[in-house]
């Protein structure tokens, strides 16, 4: 009887230790805003990128690069433990960001890239205000809706609403959640557009006095399936900041219930693309 009791207590102790380890294990991360641009590729090899992701617990990424060759290089690594979701970026060179939506060469470029048959979305692209009424932007929005592709837009709220008007129901990731868009406006747009997902990089108001901003916390709790994280490695120096960004996100999410934190950290991204 004594031996049975000791065995039972040992089992309970091991179980508690296991549960404690799970509770304190850093959250996996789905990086839903990553660029592997040509400038970074000269100093950050694909192998180095994959190794850093593995070390930091980044288990999946939404990859967009200028040009798209960077994304293809990452896919070619065949890392079994890191899921790479490729998006088609409509930029060949940096200046394309300014007029891609009015450039016939970009339209031909996008059509050719789509023939690869690998892309899950189009973006990240930059467009603001009434430029979002450009005929090619409307065409891209309708194409994405027809082909069940996501859009990834770096835009103000005006442009976002114009895009969603062109193709009601199209799935759209809002880069940086507008950066400075008021949270009241964000909440109103969530209520109006159920296929709008917000990405959180470069929002300077996420924390307040070292803790999660209460207004953001309320939004996260009300819409736990509408947010994703991102590093936005848009310049090469930003790659050096990725460890600090991961630490920041995990600290911020630590102020949320575990199930909500898990959704924002990685489960929303996986669900968006049907990944296990």
TrEMBL record:
Keyword Signal set for record: yes
Enumerate the spans annotated as Amidohydrolase-related domain: 128-275
Which Pfam families does the UniProt entry name for this protein? Amidohydro_2 (PF04909)
Question: Where does the signal peptide begin and end?
Answer: 1-23
| InterPro entries in the cross-refs | Amidohydro-rel, Metal_Hydrolase
List UniProt keywords, sorted A-Z: Signal
- Spell out the molecular function terms from Gene Ontology: hydrolase activity
Q: Which Gene3D superfamilies match?
A: Metal-dependent hydrolases
Protein name (database record): Amidohydrolase-related domain-containing protein
């Amino acid at each position: 009887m004594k031996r049975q009791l000791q065995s039972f207590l040992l089992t309970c102790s091991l179980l508690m230790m296991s549960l404690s380890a799970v509770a304190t294990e850093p959250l996996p991360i789905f990086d839903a805003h990553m660029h592997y641009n040509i400038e970074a590729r000269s100093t950050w090899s694909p192998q180095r990128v994959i190794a850093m992701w593995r070390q930091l617990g980044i288990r999946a990424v939404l990859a967009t690069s200028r040009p798209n060759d960077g994304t293809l290089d990452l896919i070619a690594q065949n890392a079994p433990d890191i899921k790479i979701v490729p998006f088609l970026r409509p930029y060949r060179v940096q200046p394309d960001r300014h007029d891609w939506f009015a450039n016939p060469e970009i339209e031909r470029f996008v059509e050719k890239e789509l023939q690869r048959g690998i892309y899950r979305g189009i973006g990240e692209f930059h467009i603001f205000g009434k430029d979002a009424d450009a005929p090619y932007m409307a065409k891209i929005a309708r194409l994405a809706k027809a082909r069940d592709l996501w859009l990834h837009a770096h835009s103000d709220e005006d442009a976002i609403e114009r895009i969603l008007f062109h193709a009601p129901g199209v799935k759209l990731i809002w880069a940086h959640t507008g950066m400075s868009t008021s949270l009241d406006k964000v909440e109103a747009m969530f209520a109006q557009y159920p296929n709008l997902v917000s990405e959180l990089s470069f929002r300077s108001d996420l924390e307040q006095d070292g803790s999660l901003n209460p207004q953001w916390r309320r939004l996260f709790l009300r819409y736990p399936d509408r947010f994703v994280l991102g590093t936005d490695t848009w310049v090469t120096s930003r790659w050096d900041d990725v460890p600090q960004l991961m630490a920041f996100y995990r600290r911020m999410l630590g102020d949320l219930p575990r199930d909500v934190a898990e959704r924002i950290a990685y489960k929303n991204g996986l669900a968006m693309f049907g990944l296990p």
